[in-house]
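Please, structure for the following, as tokens.
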Amino acid sequence: MISLPLFKKEIKSNYKILLIFMAILALYVPIMVYMFDPKLGDMLKQFEEAMPGMMSAMGMTSAGNDLISFLDSYLFGFILIVFPMIFTIMLANKLVAGYVDSGSMACILASPNTRKKIIFTQILVMIINILLLVLFSTILAIVTSEIMFPGQLNIKNYILMSLSLFLLQLAVAGISFLASCIFNESKNSFLFGAGIPILLYLVNMLANMGGNLENLKYATIFTLLPSSEIAAGKTDILLPILILVTISIVLYSVGAYIFTKKDLPL
């Protein structure tokens, strides 16, 4: 089903960039947990009052009095969305279009592996990397919370929030991966693979500002993240989860089909 040597090579060649993004999250996540301190929280409220539009656009508004609602607002609204998204855009381009553009794909295809086995390997590499990044941020947030505010984080619900975040990032990465399979040049892969997710996130920011713009929430994939509902203890999250899973399956399947059928400039 997959090429184990290629899988090992991809894991080895991409671990440094993964560590870089883990380091970025290791910087931000503990700081945001620390900001739950009521004295520091007042500073965030002052920011919200001074720049209500910007804070709303980034999903950083109306944090509840409990830790999980606070983290939902200040982590899941921007930091855990944007940084993993940048990581997946870079990785998706590298895994397919990057090799085609540089000519390295010819060497990979010269190995005793079918195109189907190669693209499934790249998809698995994509999934594993996203999983590791989300898993790292989840463990980091839980450990930091337990150290700074013992017993105040609803760990079960936070894990569910992280699981939904993983599915969202998987779907967003699917857009970039599909673009990487369609285009042979990295510049075009980046143009659509990065442009579409960024555009959808900007639409989400506009929808977060409310008013007449709120209906834009139906035009972006990011509003499918049910983290706020989970943080509030709601259980009716099955529909957005199923939609995210369906989007991922469709995007990766179409990308794999295109890669196996198209003429490559080798």
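The chain is about 75% helix and 0% strand. The radius of gyration is 20 Å.
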